[in-house]
């Protein structure tokens, strides 16, 4: 059995999908959560000055998507064949573009950067949602499985729904015009292997 | 045999790493290159409104890294085992972060976005290059292979070297402090399967896409 440790801050952020993969697969792992105060001493010891990183049998993997994909492949969450794996990768990269376009607002909304989040909402929340929500809706329509790809649940469903969760926390009406996406979020939350974990997890931050 | 069609602007940009994989593997593909005027007409017909776009059989793929990885896996360019593949993915994602930070400077320089090129170079490009270029040096030193990972050439080398080439063309003083990275670019360009392709390909930005 592999020796697995995931290191990230005590938030959902970009580390949560990896936690979800491991919980889904019922794989034992150390879920190490770093306090903000500890971070300055730990940062120089990391490969790239960032979190998350994964330690897997003594080897270190950095970058959230590389970690997610590495784990997902082991537990059947990466797509049923190479083409589906590529489709999952594409959708994850589209999600990353979406996420990046909201960062100026998110950093202010989270309090990392000074500013008024309301001033940034139109350009960095409303416009990106208008661009990206139809793309996600379209993939759901094409897959017909209720998840992003036709064979069912994959790691990209965790990445997208974690970010949808963040959006809803700040703006409860985010998905009012996109009921299919709200249903999708609820569907991922009801995945039998994870229902218990989601219900006990504090969904804030 | 699969018929591949790659659509992108007539520039290296985010598609060049994909073209390099095809050329390295000696796989035929339709290299469809468009201008901005053509793009305005084609964009609404594409699945996600972005390029590069790879079409083959009844399928399509978007997102440059996803396309690269899919093709690279078929042609021994993705890394030798699961850990090395993860390392390759990590490097490509880090380059994406670097590129995203540099992009406002680059688009101001090429003239498709407003911006003070000199200001953006100073506040974005230079500080970010001081974070990422030493990381690439570290990966090269750790791998010992002359490429970014131990087993040798992977698609991460195409992605990273293409961006380093852009820096060499558009902000040469940035790479001056990194002679080993300059040698690395030349080493990728000397890969036997690609030497001829690189020799006839321009590194410069093609302004004719604005026509």
TrEMBL record, chain A:
Q: Which GO terms describe its biological process?
A: glutathione metabolic process
Q: Name one GO molecular function term.
A: glutathione transferase activity
Q: Main EC class of this protein?
A: transferase
Keyword Kinase annotated: no
Provide one Gene Ontology cellular component: cytoplasm
CDD domains reported for this sequence: GST_C_Sigma_like (cd03192), GST_N_Sigma_like (cd03039)
* Gene3D superfamilies named among the record's database cross-references: 1.20.1050.10, Glutaredoxin
| Protein family (similarity comment) | Belongs to the GST superfamily. Sigma family.
Protein name per the record:
glutathione transferase
Q: Which organism is it from?
A: Panagrolaimus davidi
UniProtKB/TrEMBL annotation, chain B:
Keyword entries, A-Z:
Transferase
The reaction(s) this protein catalyses? RX + glutathione = an S-substituted glutathione + a halide anion + H(+)
Does this UniProt record's set of keywords contain Transferase?
Answer: yes
Q: Endoplasmic reticulum: present as a keyword of the record?
A: no
Question: Any idea where the GST C-terminal domain is?
Answer: 81-210
Domain (GST N-terminal) spans: 2-79
Q: Which InterPro entries match?
A: Glutathione-S-Trfase_C-like (IPR010987), Glutathione-S-Trfase_C_sf (IPR036282), Glutathione_S-Trfase (IPR040079), Glutathione_S-Trfase_N (IPR004045), GST_C (IPR004046), GST_superfamily (IPR050213), Thioredoxin-like_sf (IPR036249)
Q: What class of enzyme is it?
A: transferase
- Kindly give the PROSITE patterns that the UniProt entry links to this protein: GST_CTER, GST_NTER
The record, for Pfam families, names: GST_C_3, GST_N
Biological process (GO) annotations? glutathione metabolic process
Gene3D superfamilies this protein is in?
1.20.1050.10, Glutaredoxin
One cellular component GO annotation, for this chain's record?
A: cytoplasm
For this UniProt entry, the molecular function terms from Gene Ontology, in alphabetical order, are:
glutathione peroxidase activity; glutathione transferase activity
What top-level branch of life does the organism fall under?
Eukaryota
UniProt EC number? 2.5.1.18
Give the family, as the similarity comment puts it. Answer: Belongs to the GST superfamily. Sigma family.
Q: What is this protein called?
A: glutathione transferase
């Amino acid at each position: 059995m592999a020796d697995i440790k995931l290191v990230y801050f005590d938030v959902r952020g970009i580390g949560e999908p990896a936690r979800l993969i491991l919980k889904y697969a019922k794989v034992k792992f150390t879920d190490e959560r770093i306090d903000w105060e500890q971070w300055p001493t730990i940062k120089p010891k990391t490969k790239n000055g960032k979190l998350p990183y994964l330690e897997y049998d003594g080897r270190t993997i950095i970058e959230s998507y590389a970690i997610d994909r590495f784990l997902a492949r082991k537990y059947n969450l990466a797509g049923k064949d190479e083409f589906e794996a590529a489709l999952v990768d594409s959708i994850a990269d589209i999600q990353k573009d979406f996420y990046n376009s909201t960062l100026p607002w998110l950093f202010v909304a989270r309090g990392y950067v000074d500013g008024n989040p309301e001033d940034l909402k139109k350009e960095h929340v409303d416009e990106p949602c208008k661009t990206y929500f139809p793309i996600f809706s379209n993939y759901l329509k094409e897959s017909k499985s209720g998840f992003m790809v036709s064979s069912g649940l994959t790691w990209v469903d965790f990445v997208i729904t974690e970010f949808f969760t963040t959006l809803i926390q700040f703006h409860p009406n985010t998905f009012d015009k996109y009921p299919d996406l709200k249903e999708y979020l609820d569907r991922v939350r009801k995945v039998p292997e994870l229902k218990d974990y989601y219900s006990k997890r504090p969904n804030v931050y | 045999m699969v018929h591949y069609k790659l659509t992108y602007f007539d520039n290296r940009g985010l598609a060049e790493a994909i073209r390099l994989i095809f050329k390295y593997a000696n796989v035929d593909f339709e290299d469809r290159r468009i201008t901005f005027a053509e793009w305005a007409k084609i964009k609404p017909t594409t699945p996600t409104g972005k390029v590069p776009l790879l079409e083959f059989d009844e399928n399509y793929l978007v997102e440059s890294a996803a396309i690269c990885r899919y093709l690279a896996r078929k042609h021994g360019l993705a890394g030798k085992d699961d850990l090395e593949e993860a390392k390759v993915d990590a490097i490509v994602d880090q380059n994406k972060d670097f590129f995203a930070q540099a992009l406002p400077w680059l688009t101001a320089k090429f003239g498709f976005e407003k911006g003070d090129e000199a200001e953006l170079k100073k506040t974005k490009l230079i500080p970010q290059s001081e974070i990422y270029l030493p990381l690439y040096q570290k990966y090269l030193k750790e791998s010992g292979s002359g490429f970014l990972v131990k087993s040798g050439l992977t698609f991460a080398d195409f992605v990273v070297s293409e961006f380093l080439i852009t820096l060499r063309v558009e902000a040469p003083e940035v790479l001056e402090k990194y002679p080993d990275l300059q040698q690395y670019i030349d080493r990728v360009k000397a890969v036997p399967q690609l030497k001829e392709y690189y020799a006839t390909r321009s590194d410069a930005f093609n302004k004719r896409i604005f026509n």
